[in-house]
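Is this the right way to post structure tokens for a design question? Let me know if I should format differently. Anyway, here goes:
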């Protein structure tokens, strides 16, 4: 149930998006599992919010112009399928073939990302795509654009780190003739170029704080003012941003604007690294091997089971981009011939020999002792003052990983799988918990 508290205009905005909502003047009517949407400035104090949260109510506070974005995000990301009843189910494989055919793989993590991309493509709201470099974030962004109502207009990609710091503003917003040395003619920026379409801001975590401030202003009213001009121009742009960094952590350090993060992170799509998609490595490798052979006009090399096993064990720090380069290297070196182990890059061979997964290491008595003491101490006093280092030392990384997994699992069970409530029990943002569950999906089963 969605309960709403606010002005007549606010409630009218909610009505246009979610006609099944219930109006209320008494937040106590909202029960566990309900959502309470409150207009900024409404007659609801901090105690009311605290009481509702303790009852298991999800409280959302926003301004009138943020209603559509917030409810779109809730409909797309909700754990409860009934929250998105207005979203028709589709054949994901058919959607993929039409809009994302170049995205290869069948792993659960990739499928989850594609499902989210399909759903968000129906809503005209900002999207933040997270994942390591080389995981295919731009491919997901292009798929969203191709499946959206903006498909007939431009998709403009901006690689934020590649633009010199003193030219970023001009590149994004444009400049007037003579606005600075070298500006011999006026130029439209990327926002204007993407008008009516999609603007993809890649590696946005690298953007300078001052440019972040100006970007936030544009996202608030969607008008841009070229450098050297005083007249603003209105643009109609859908923003899809991507990052390989933890923007939440950066905002806590003052390295990324929190208000901008809120604007961008309406819906988040996470792409897992290739080392977590081992079942996709073979299909990806064969695809890029065939593609490289066709492009270079050479016969594909022969790859035996030993080489394939080595590829599966490799950590792939460069992800799909690295795998594609290895495939091209092998076509050049061994066209039409059998690939030997020494033909693989040395870094790949060394990495395939080591699989240090801390969480899979044996639990020593010392580790178990520390874990038990940590849980007991936190339960009694809320801190870890009673935990002592064993005489023989402890595997700190493995212990912390197991302790985290244990507490996440307990929170999921205690809330019957409700991720919003589990995140509150753990003191985490919901998106942070979702990302952790993606990496350890066995913890998410209630």
């Amino acid at each position: 149930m969605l309960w709403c508290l606010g002005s007549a205009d606010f409630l009218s905005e909610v009505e246009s998006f979610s006609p099944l909502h219930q109006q209320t003047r008494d937040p106590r009517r909202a029960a566990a599992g309900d959502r309470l949407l409150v207009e900024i400035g409404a007659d609801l104090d901090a105690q009311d919010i605290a009481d509702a949260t303790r009852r298991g109510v999800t409280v959302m506070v926003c301004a009138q112009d943020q209603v559509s974005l917030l409810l779109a995000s809730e409909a797309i990301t909700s754990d409860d399928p009934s929250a998105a009843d207005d979203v028709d189910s589709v054949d994901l494989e058919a959607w993929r073939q039409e809009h994302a055919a170049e995205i290869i793989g069948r792993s659960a993590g990739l499928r989850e990302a594609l499902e989210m991309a399909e759903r968000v493509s129906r809503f005209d709201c900002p999207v933040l795509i997270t994942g390591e470099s080389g995981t295919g974030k731009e491919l997901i962004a292009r798929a969203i654009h191709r499946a959206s109502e903006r498909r007939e207009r431009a998709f403009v990609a901006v690689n934020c780190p590649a633009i010199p710091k003193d030219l970023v503003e001009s590149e994004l917003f444009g400049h007037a003739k003579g606005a600075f040395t070298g500006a011999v003619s006026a130029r439209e920026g990327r926002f204007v170029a993407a008008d009516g379409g999609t603007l993809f801001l890649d590696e946005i975590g690298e953007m300078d704080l001052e440019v972040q401030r100006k970007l936030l202003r544009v996202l608030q009213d969607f008008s841009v003012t070229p450098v050297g001009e005083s007249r603003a121009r209105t643009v109609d742009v859908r923003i899809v941003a991507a990052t390989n960094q933890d923007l939440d952590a950066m905002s806590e350090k003052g390295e990324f604007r929190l208000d901008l993060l809120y604007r961008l992170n309406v819906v988040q799509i996470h792409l897992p690294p290739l080392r977590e998609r081992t079942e996709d490595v073979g299909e990806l490798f064969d695809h890029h091997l065939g593609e490289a052979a066709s492009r270079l006009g050479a016969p594909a090399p022969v790859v035996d089971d030993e080489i394939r096993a080595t590829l599966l064990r490799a950590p792939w720090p460069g992800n799909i981009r690295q795998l594609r380069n290895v495939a091209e290297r092998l076509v050049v070196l061994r066209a039409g011939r059998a690939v030997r182990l020494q033909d693989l890059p040395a870094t790949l061979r060394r990495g395939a020999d080591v699989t240090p997964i801390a969480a899979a290491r044996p639990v020593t008595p010392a580790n178990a002792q520390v874990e038990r003491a940590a849980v007991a101490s936190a339960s009694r006093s809320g801190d870890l003052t009673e935990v002592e280092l064993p005489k023989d030392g402890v595997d700190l990384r493995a212990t912390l990983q197991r302790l985290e997994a244990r507490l996440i699992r307990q929170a999921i069970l205690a809330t019957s799988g409700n991720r919003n409530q589990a995140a509150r029990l753990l003191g985490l943002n919901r998106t942070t918990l979702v990302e952790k569950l993606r990496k350890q999906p066995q913890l998410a089963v209630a």
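Format looks fine. Someone answered above. Worth noting: The chain has four domains: 2-84, 92-272, 275-352, 359-444. The mean pLDDT is 81.
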